[in-house]
Amino acid sequence: DALAMRASGPDFAYDMTLDAQGPLIFHGDQGYSVKSAGGQASYYYSQPFYDISGVLMLPDGNVDVSGSAWLDRAWSSQPLGADQTGWDWFSLSFDDGAKMMGFLLRQADGTAYSSATWIAPDGETEAFPDGAFAAVPLDTHTTAGRDVPVQWQVTLPAKGVDVMVMALNPDAWMDTSVPYWEGPVNVAGSHQGVGYLEMTGYE
To answer: Which string of b and e fits 62-100 if b means at least 16 CB within 10 Å?
Structure first.
């Protein structure tokens, strides 16, 4: 089913339609996504197959736009573990139609808990446990007084993924009640594409 998405602010508005071209994706074990060796978890699903189109209303006039979109939904009854400091969350769409979600939950001792989902072009999924997915920061950018990784080497060897993930806007800091960085990225290397990156816990 198609969804409508509308919003406005002092200097902008948009009116979008999203039309799903593939199935919902349930991460982990049928949507139960483990976040630590100690048992923290959330329920987590995505709709990464949206076609999106609509109009941006800007001070200089309207702009027609179209492309693809990825919707995430997650919920949990518990916060991160006491020994977890934040996360680095990647959703990547490759030019060949495949997609990948992967995250690191950073531990206070410098290690990380990881998880990933490989999404084939037809929506078939494969879940990967801790250790299968890796993301190594290569470059940082200072924004809002914080050094935040804005270039990463991301790998999922079981699927032949070895890519560079690069932020389009290194200053995409969200100064909300829980401050974090999020924004679009370009992908190059073994796979070409685009994606989205979310990072918390950088102070």
So the answer is: eeeeeeebbbbeeeeeeebbeebbbbbbbbbbbeeebbb
Q: Where are the beta strands (DSSP E) in the chain?
A: 2-9, 12-20, 25-26, 32-34, 41-58, 61-75, 84-94, 99-107, 112-119, 125-128, 134-143, 146-156, 161-167, 173-174, 180-189, 193-200
| Residue whose C-alpha is closest to residue 135's, from 182, 91, 180, 168 | 91
CB distance 57 to 37 below 8 Å: no
Q: Tell me if 65 sits within 8 A of 53, measured CB to CB.
A: yes
- Provide mean pLDDT across the span 2-21: 96
pLDDT digits (tens, 9 = 90+) for 108-156: 999 999 999 999 999 999 999 999 999 999 999 999 999 999 999 999 9
Say if CB 88 and CB 104 are below 8 A apart.
yes
Q: Running DSSP on this structure, what letter comes out for residue 21?
A: -
